[in-house]
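REVIEWER CHECKLIST
Item 1: Sequence provided? yes
Item 2: Single chain? yes
Item 3: Sequence as submitted:
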Amino acid sequence: MTTALTPVAPAAAPTAPIRSAGTTAPGLSDLPPPAGTAVFDRGESRVRLYCRTFPVVLRRAKGARLFAEDGRVFTDFFCGAGSLNYGHNNDGLKAALAAYVAADGVAHGLDMYTVAKREFLTAFRTHVLEPRGLEYTAQFPGPTGTDAVEAALKVARKATGRSGVIAFSGGFHGMSRGSLAVTGSGRARRAGGVHGQDPVTFVPFEDGPGGAFDSVGLIERLLDDPSSGVETPAAVIVEPVQMEGGVRPASAGWLRRLREATERRGILLICDEIQSGCGRTGDFFAFEESGIVPDVVTVSKSLSGYGLPMSLTLFRPELDVWEPGEHTGTFRGNQLAFVTATAAAGLWSDEVFHRSRAETARALAEFGAEVADREPAVRVRGRGAVLGIDLAASGGGARAAHVQRYAFDHGLIVELAGREDEVLKVMPPLTIDPAELADGIGVLRAALLNRI
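Item 4: Structure as written out by the authors:
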């Protein structure tokens, strides 16, 4: 557990006005860049995003707090896009990492045998897989989530001998070529040069901006009709909770139907748990609520627990059809990440940690219910320690940008999601101090319920 800090009052709001409705690029701040950032503008690509959304130079971080160079303090409801579920510089993880580095532990090991990797595999099996009755083989495909998805798609195609994949509208799986092919976002696909020739069939998710949809029924009809034009695919890839898609949880019944439909037809089911996993949406994996067992699972982001790059592709042992060296990568053996991931896995046998994450989830659910009760036009969705506040019918992306800007001005970092950045995606650390959580919720309450 991260040591709790004494709550710090958020900084006073800057005098710059909150952006007006209709401003383009909702969510991007119109504040001038802070002092000391000229080197970034001169030397770094325009592709950078979050420094524009949150224009502040950060110096240090602890728990749920970010400390800026200019003295401001922010509560972090963003958590590195889900990479810091255990908070910044978690004491237990930091101690393990510092001891390993001080002892000259191996820092880079490709896929060689190392003590650090052995200890991680043992801890992950002991604290995560075995208590859930899961028997998976682990592949370390590379440092990022998109690497895990690429490996999942490749192993599915190799194991089945088929090339097609079914994916869902609103899904997000990464920014490399194969991952983009199964990502619904038009903006991301266009930037990556991904077009309709990729062997991917998109169907609506169970719930989206257009309302509920029987997507499993559509998949079954397409696959059972010899004239549908859709051949039996290698896999179906799904996020049990669409996070970038606007915090849209799949229901347990829908996931069970999807599992049954794929199993009957010999299609592999890939669950992308890169952002929904590691405890963010309930138990360690979001799919656990439904009782299903996917064939392949991708895990990354908070897997290392410390913000260090690390990803896993998990699959049933009989799907391990790789030849040695068929899928490789220089940084697939991040030994420092193995060390912190081992410590993070141990938290899953820690009752204090479980009480903390349960309290965080309860507080978010209560706040979501309060918002929904006070303003019925706002749609609130969530599970576990993530809350999606959908303003599509109550000001849309422009209002979401207002709230995000108000939050920043009052010492809170929160991200936007959804098709038009119309959803506030609230993700505090699972280990957040209750007073810090109340501070952040208070800022959102002021922005939302006072109609900022």
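Item 5: Key structural point noted by reviewer: The two ends are 35 Å apart (CA to CA).
Item 6: Recommendation: ____
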